[in-house]
UniProtKB/TrEMBL annotation:
InterPro entries: Metallo-B-lactamas, RibonucZ/Hydroxyglut_hydro, Sec-metab_biosynth-thioest, WH-like_DNA-bd_sf. This is MBL fold metallo-hydrolase. One of its GO terms (molecular function) is hydrolase activity. Keywords: Hydrolase. It comes from Actinomadura rayongensis. SMART domains: Lactamase_B.
């Protein structure tokens, strides 16, 4: 059985420090991206100093919201003993690095993020995604993204953490233990933190209650991020159920329920993508244009460029998994990958 959950506000983005279970509070912080709404950070009480899971985006509104919420708990940002970060996306990692510059706070993140973190200051932000869009048969969209890209965030002096979090490691706090589980897919080094005794999963972006996370959106993605993501979902599904403490959305009572929904969603998308190849669409762009997007079932070309990029790359990842499953065959010509139903 999962533990009882403290009452949560109807709007999960409501500012404040919301109790989850005794000793754990959820703080939603604003993000400067329309549609993303907010990101949750979680404050864990500990006699050696509060531990915070994820940190928010390093911009003034997020820092002000964090300071205000910590103040409700009788704390300041300088009191935080360490940040445990689920992955290296800017809305999770960057504020931890800024607070380290100010207070010397210890920052840890999954070891698998090292290649992408080291690429922060040496590669354009979307370099690899632009290459993949061309492979997906979407050169015009690649050009749009290249025009929007202004490179990585160079305002952080040192993007490396103080120490890595390793798969299978147990972070021993004074009052609780957190097991580190590598859950690659959303990013190659994504980790979740599991408090088995208290029945909690600090899930980052691995399991989200209302949306399916993007796959492999990072400077150095792995070869088959969707395959890794599905394997990582099954990994947490095989463990005893816990409360779901996500980075985006409200806390919910069951990790298992949401994982089952996500696995079913991707199975349906795999079937739909294969059907579109059978119908004669041969590139990821063609398949993506033939499929509806968002809950409003919008056409691909009605989305903004960033959302179109995510959609096309997601379909490319699904088509690659179908190729690995020997349902489709893939070939490349002039840098464009095409797909056909396996004979």
């Amino acid at each position: 059985m999962t533990p009882p959950l403290s009452e949560q506000p109807p709007d999960w983005t409501e500012p404040g420090a919301h109790p989850v279970v005794p000793g754990v509070h959820r703080i939603p912080l604003p993000v400067p991206v329309p549609g993303l709404h907010a990101v949750n950070v979680y404050v864990i009480d500990d006699p050696s100093g509060p531990v915070v899971v994820d940190s928010g985006w390093a911009f003034p509104d997020a820092r002000a919201a964090l300071d205000s919420a910590l103040g409700l708990l009788g704390l300041t940002a300088g009191d935080v003993s360490q940040f445990l970060v689920t992955h290296a996306h800017i809305d999770h990692y960057s504020q931890a690095l800024k607070l380290r510059e100010a207070f010397g706070t210890r920052v840890r993140i999954g070891r698998g993020e090292e290649p992408s973190i080291k690429a922060f200051n040496v590669a354009d932000r979307s370099r690899r995604q632009i290459e993949l869009l061309r492979r997906c048969g979407a050169p015009d969209l690649a050009a749009e993204i290249a025009a929007l890209d202004r490179g990585g965030d160079r305002s952080i002096a040192d993007p490396l953490p103080d120490a890595w979090l390793d798969d299978g490691e147990r972070v021993a706090l004074t009052a609780r233990d957190l097991d580190v589980l590598a859950t690659p897919g959303h990013t190659r080094g994504h980790v979740v933190l599991r408090d088995a005794a208290a029945g909690l999963l600090f899930a980052g972006d691995h399991v989200l209650p209302h949306i399916s996370p993007s796959i492999g959106l990072e400077p150095e993605p792995e070869a088959s991020p969707l395959r890794s993501y599905l394997d990582s979902l099954r990994l947490v599904r095989d463990l005893p159920d816990t409360l779901l403490l996500p980075a985006h959305g409200g806390v919910t009572g069951s990790v298992h329920t949401r994982v089952d929904e996500l696995l079913a969603h991707h199975e349906a998308r795999l079937d739909a993508a294969a059907a579109q190849v059978r119908a004669g669409n041969t590139t990821a762009l063609e398949v993506a244009r033939a499929m509806p997007w968002t809950r409003r079932r919008r056409a691909l070309d009605d989305l903004d460029p960033f959302s179109r990029m995510l959609a096309v790359l997601e379909i490319g990842a699904h088509l690659d998994v179908l190729t690995e499953q020997r349902i489709l065959d893939a070939s490349e010509s002039a840098g464009v990958r095409t797909y056909a139903v396996r004979a």
